[in-house]
Amino acid sequence: MEIQILQDDQLTAVSEWLAQCNEQDIHYIAWLESEPSAIEEQIGALLPFNEPHAWVALEEGNIKGFIGLEPFEGEQVGRLLGPFAYGKDASNVMEALWEKALVEWKNIYSELKVAFFEENQDVLHFCESNGFHLYNREKNLILPKQAHLPTPLSEHVVPYEGSFNKLQQLHPDAAYFNASEMTHLIQDPHFSLWCYKEKDTVKGYIFFERIEGMDEGEICFLQVEDSEQGQGIGSALIRYACHQAFLEQGLSFVTVPVRSTNPQAEKLYKELGFQEHTTIVAYTKTINQG
């Protein structure tokens, strides 16, 4: 087996291989795009860095594994895309990829993070064997279109049209992208941002992504002003997002990740018809104390 830095002429084949892996719960790793074309664009963006940010494992010309790293903008933190491998040699392939990559990455980054479905036992074993620590656990809830009950929509829910300071105030500090990035993303038609406004005051928002190449969307963020909790604002935003997903965008499923430390949110979603689907776990590792 040979571990190589990912090359431009390998992008298409590796992207197709990754798409096949990630569509299975037992191999799923978060932060990787779904469609081969989107994956190719995503991992292709890792090639221009001065230091290698993507590696592929090959055996007799066949792809055996992959690991990549996306940096957080302006931070010494990286999000792992991988390691991916499967079969009886999966653990050995993952370790070989990690050994090669870590030599480069520990000189650039201080912390690495990875998130994946709990069913992915190979990556779970990898994390536990290499000193990663669990920092988050989320249930992934799902609402099928046939379980959606259309209800009257609140007139207070409107598309985002400014009010950035209030949006930034509501947005969680530890989110995987910030408020500025969120408002930039809505220029892409796959993303939507709706706000709950009363008298020109934003009291909550919901950020939604239509997953490219798939028949589903995801509620990425739902935030409501602390002083307005329990007033039905969250429910109004969720109902509006589901209406848009099912009746306007023609999707078949809406999913949402809910932290295990947030039972109130889980209760709210389940009251609106969502059901438990999968569990996502997130691990982190400090690789450079400097």
From TrEMBL:
Coiled coil: none annotated. Keywords: Acyltransferase, Transferase. This is GNAT family acetyltransferase. The keyword Acyltransferase applies. Residues 155-290 form the N-acetyltransferase domain. One of its GO terms (molecular function) is acyltransferase activity, transferring groups other than amino-acyl groups. The lineage of its organism: Bacteria, Bacillati, Bacillota, Bacilli, Bacillales. It comes from the Bacteria. It comes from Pontibacillus chungwhensis BH030062. The keyword Transferase applies.
